[in-house]
Write a structure and sequence with these properties.
Length: 553
């Protein structure tokens, strides 16, 4: 609900700070006192179009600020979808500024927001008849949402949406196959070429690294042979080679066995060295067996192979070790494309099944709406009768539409303001007190399903009798539901104002040579006097005062 309202430099208002009560609040005052200014200011909070002419004469900027308390779970979810979170105390502060140069700014909880987000957010907090309230009820999409909310068919609607999303996904895949047949043929040819090219290349894992190592050896073959020959000769193939000298040392040490304690250990170590040198000499000798002609041929083969690998890596922008994985992906994609005909048949069957299930789910959803619509029309008719409007009729026109996320129905609220007249869309009904009362009826009917915390009615009693005013007052008090909903009503009816839980008087006075609008929260005596003023005019008699007291009782 709206906890407080601050208005600065709007028309006759210099500065006005207003703490609002819960439940049913009535605003009264003489004509021209500024009631409409307060309503217009609230409209700015709701994102209404700003007009620089509303700014107080002599001022450059006007401000309206409202602090709301939000506890309803549905509203909190809706605000969260707009990335709006209440403060720690559960409040939301909405600020709107307009300047004489035409600029307009809005903030929610201190953060600047575009007007579109402001409208979306505040529409969940506050509804003013004559502005977004009438627009909301007149919007066909919103009417369908309201009907669903009244029907409490969330489970059925969610089941339908699951069927709808499944249908859409299958249809999208099938359409893609049908629309891209030519592109798919081109893709298939390209895949076949790539697969054949990689298969013919037959590149092994780590082959590139092995070839590079081999090329390095082949490119240095002469140096390798030269140095290997020297090493082989020094170890084995020359007089007084290392192995010969090791043999001499081994014989000498063996002769000391049994004489020195280390002889056996030294012999074992020399024996190990002998076999290690022998292995090294054999390895060195192996490099001497390569002929120059075979080295040149093999080097050319390595260079050619490495060039092919490099070319394919650049072409497919992948390391050669990734080629097996790449080949697997292409073959999988090729299989999908080659089986596209079978896939089309499979998806076509799935689509038929999904469409059948969607139609059945859509019919089930339609039935909940039609049944709820009958009950809604009966409830609205009863409310209209209670407000002495038996000539007004309310109907819901249903029509079929293509499958959409909200079903296959179109629903439109129709109203006939006078008996015998054709019912028309709400957007075409003339505004005024009669439409206000129709709005009140709808608000009362939708009270359980609509989560808006603050409802504002401007002169809802216009042109009605005292008996009807009393009924309107009772309806407003019932709509407040013991404080669960905040009702703010601007009225000229003493009977209606007497039903309010809180009463505010709007008046104007002169300050510093200028007229300003003021709002006063009335106590019991103030309420009595204000009700008497409304009934008796300038000459308030004791009889009128007693009548006002009787109303308050």
């Amino acid at each position: 609900m709206l906890l407080s309202l601050y208005i600065e430099n709007i028309a006759l208002i210099k500065r006005l700070s207003l703490e609002l009560g819960e439940s049913f609040c009535a605003f009264t005052g003489e004509t021209g006192a500024g009631k409409s200014i307060i309503i217009d200011s609230m409209g700015l909070l709701c994102g209404a179009r700003s007009d620089k002419d509303i700014i107080r004469t002599g001022e450059e900027e006007a401000t309206v600020e409202g602090i709301f308390s939000v506890t309803d779970e549905k509203t909190l979810i809706g605000l969260k979808e707009l990335d709006i979170e209440p403060e720690e105390d559960g409040s939301i502060t909405v600020l709107r500024k307009i300047s004489r140069d035409g600029r307009s700014g809005a903030k929610i909880n201190g953060r600047s927001v575009p007007l579109s987000r402001l409208r979306s957010a505040v529409s969940q907090l506050l509804s003013i008849h004559g502005q977004q309230d009438t627009q909301a009820f007149a919007d066909r999409e919103r009417q369908l949402m309201m009907l669903d909310s009244f029907a409490k068919n969330d489970f059925v609607l969610e089941a339908y949406r699951e069927k709808y999303n499944n249908y859409r996904q299958i249809k999208s895949k099938l359409d893609s196959l049908l629309d891209n047949s030519r592109e798919r043929e081109i893709m298939l040819d390209m895949l076949k070429y790539r697969i054949n090219e990689l298969k013919n290349a037959n590149i092994r894992e780590n082959e590139k690294e092995e070839l590079e190592a081999e090329r390095k050896i082949l490119a240095n073959s002469e140096r390798i042979i030269s140095r290997a020959s020297i090493a082989y000769g020094a170890i084995y193939g020359s007089e007084s080679s290392a192995l010969d000298r090791i043999g001499d040392a081994l014989n000498a040490i063996n002769a000391l066995n049994g004489i020195i304690p280390e002889a056996e250990s030294l012999s074992e170590r020399l024996e190990s060295i002998k076999y290690e040198l022998l292995d090294i000499s054999e390895t060195a000798k192996s490099y001497l067996d390569e002929g120059n002609e075979s080295v040149d041929i093999r080097l050319d083969e390595c260079e050619s192979r490495l060039e092919l690998i490099k070319k394919l890596e650049m072409k497919y922008k992948a390391d050669s070790n990734e080629f097996p994985k790449l080949l697997e992906e292409w073959e999988s994609e090729q299989a999908v494309n080659e089986n596209s005909e079978a896939e089309r048949e499979r998806l076509s069957k799935l689509l038929k099944t999904a469409e059948k299930e969607l139609k059945e789910s859509g019919k089930a959803l339609s039935r909940t709406r039609i049944d709820a619509g009958k009950l809604l029309c009966e409830r609205v008719k009863n409310e209209l009768n209670e407000l002495d409007m038996p000539g007004v009729s309310f109907e819901i026109a249903f029509a079929e539409k293509e499958f959409a996320s909200d079903g296959c129905d179109e629903a439109e609220f129709l109203i006939s303001a006078n008996k015998g007249e054709t019912a028309k869309p709400m957007s075409k009904i003339a505004s005024g007190g009669e439409l206000s009362r129709i709005m009140l009826c709808l608000k009362c009917v939708f009270a359980d399903s609509e989560a808006i915390g603050t409802l504002i009615f401007d002169e809802i009693d216009s042109g009605v009798s005292g008996r009807t005013s009393e009924k309107i007052g009772i309806r407003l008090k019932n709509a407040a539901n013991g404080g669960k909903t905040q009702i703010i009503c601007v009225t000229h009816s003493a009977i209606l104002a007497a039903k309010a839980d809180t009463h505010y008087k709007i008046s104007k006075s002169e300050q510093d040579g200028r007229v300003v609008t003021e709002v006063e929260r009335l106590d019991y005596i103030g309420r009595r006097d204000e009700l008497a003023r409304i009934m008796g005019g300038l000459n308030v008699s004791d009889t009128v005062l007693k009548a006002a007291e009787e109303m308050l009782k």
